[in-house]
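User: Fold this; tokens only.

Assistant: Input:
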Amino acid sequence: MPGNATPRLLRSAVGIRVRAHRRARGWDQQTLADRAEVAVSQISRLETGHTAGSVNTILRISWALGLKPAELLPDLTELKIAFGQS
């Protein structure tokens, strides 16, 4: 893996998607946390890129948002860019 920037970019990509979908619904972090049955601190850490979240957390959040889990993950192009491939 090419350095610490890559995991940070991937975490940020997930967090940006979670925040965008949450805000599109007019929800605050507490509302999403309640609906996903996770701690609000998990939502905060995910949205700020401090964690990518466990598979379980991503599943719970995606279901609460009415999304497929893949909709919260970076696509192949973003992953290639993050890993320095074209």
